[in-house]
Design a protein that fits this description.
The protein is mainly β and 311 residues long. The protein is 3% helix and 46% strand.
Length: 311
Amino acid sequence: MDGLQEHGTGVGAAGRSRRPWRLAAVGVLLGSVALAGCGSDASSAGPTTKTPATAAGKATTTAADEAATPAVGDASRCETAAVTGDYLYEVHGDQQFEEGFAPVIEVGLMTFDGKGSGTRLGTLSSTREEAKASFTYEAGEDCVGTITTDAGTTYRATFSPGGDEVTFFAQGKGSQRALDGAAERMVGEAPPTCDTSTLQGTYQYRARGAFDGQPHVEHGFEVYDGKGGVTNAFRVAGADEQERLVGTYEVDDDCHAVVTYGNGVTLDQYVSPDGAEFYWVQTDGFDADGLFGGHEHRVSTSTDTFVTTGR
């Protein structure tokens, strides 16, 4: 979560291009700069797997196992075991470098195993590449705990009862003290499975970043046709004209997507298995030095909409 990457689909008045998803090797959480110093080394551990099945096709769990395992979303529990599954996450803020503080963004997927260990897959605005890393975590009965990256950076974390949401910021007065992040448990399969048809419908978004040291704010819609085509209609703060872009997209089976617009803007996106929402960061197509990223949620399953045609 080291850097804020630009996410806009269009270039707009601020001089940017457009977006997709995945974590960078040097992310705030991910790497040397990931999630406030999350290690940059990638972990070989993958996402948690489903419970092995017997020959009859039933999970090999016992009554004792079920009694000892807290129910997902059980609002009465705050403990490490309740924080389990796949979470979409984003980190933003300012990180300290030799030249001073600079904005950064990181988005991706965190997998918690319910036993105190996890992995991250995400993209950082500063590296504009996807990367993987591991972490450990602990949730106390008071719903407060820690997340520690493989690089040794510790974040103070607050867990919602039942573990559906996690917020965190770096402990101490280090280079990532002005960064904070949040993760939300995804609805869908575990491990998640996606394809191009996962993104389908009309999505509304708000995004922000900076170009050449100047803030950039953008709001708009994207329409995904479920077949690899996407249309974007947006407005940039400070400009009155609506802009439109047309592009293509691909979604991997791990729910990572890449969007490429005709103006050269490329986005990295991390999508929930049900296709209802995603975080993104811009990785290519910049007209000026900067970063850009945002969050989108589906507002309609329709792909025949006036929001991109103006009719």
